[in-house]
Design the sequence.
């Protein structure tokens, strides 16, 4: 029987006790939050909604949390996106992102750049379903020290129309608890084109 006890923040801290054995870094939320916390339709809200970082109303801080990228994507090709905080007050930061088409289907494949981001693997402690493999990306332990991250997203070859990227971010005070952290959400819409590469 497995016993899991979460301490600290959903995005940035915590430890897991399995069968009475203490395991810290391998399962810490600092290595990435649970899946389905981007604030996108059909997700499980954000880490504020899950009862972790509930000190403040969603998007109530003064920081600016954003996704930036090209104006268009080409079906079957890869684009680069940047997720970032500005005017933040926290000492640690985290994010999680996914992409949905106009019918709210999760689309495309994410790929990390460097060691500050990671694609959420299916069937581990984060709870991602196998059918959503490569559909969610988030920070790593090394990424906690950053407030800007770059990632890649490959569009499906049959993609068309607008794709909306949804991200939730944590501007955390680094006190090792769930309190005092601000959670933000943001979106970016990118339309398809068949004529120009946006790599």
Sequence:
């Amino acid at each position: 029987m497995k016993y899991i006890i979460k301490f600290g923040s959903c995005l940035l801290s915590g430890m897991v006790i399995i069968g009475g054995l203490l395991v810290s870094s391998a399962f810490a939320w600092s290595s990435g939050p649970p899946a389905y916390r981007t604030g996108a339709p059909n997700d499980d809200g954000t880490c504020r909604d899950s009862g972790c970082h509930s000190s403040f109303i969603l998007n109530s801080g003064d920081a600016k949390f954003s996704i930036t990228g090209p104006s268009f994507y080409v079906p079957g090709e890869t684009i680069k996106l940047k997720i970032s905080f500005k005017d933040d007050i926290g000492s640690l930061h985290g994010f999680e992102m996914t992409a949905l088409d106009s019918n709210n289907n999760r689309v495309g494949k994410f790929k990390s750049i460097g060691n500050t981001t990671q694609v959420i693997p299916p069937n581990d402690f984060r709870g991602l379903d196998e059918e959503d493999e490569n559909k969610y990306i988030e920070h790593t332990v090394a990424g906690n020290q950053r407030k800007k991250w770059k990632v890649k997203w490959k569009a499906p070859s049959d993609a068309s129309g607008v794709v909306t990227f949804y991200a939730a971010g944590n501007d955390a005070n680094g006190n090792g608890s769930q309190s005092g952290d601000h959670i933000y959400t943001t979106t970016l819409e990118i339309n398809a084109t068949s004529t120009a590469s946006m790599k």
Residues 1-9, 11-28 have pLDDT under 50 and may be disordered. The CA atoms of residues 61 and 182 lie 6 Å apart. The chain has one domain: 30-192. The longest strand covers residues 182-192.
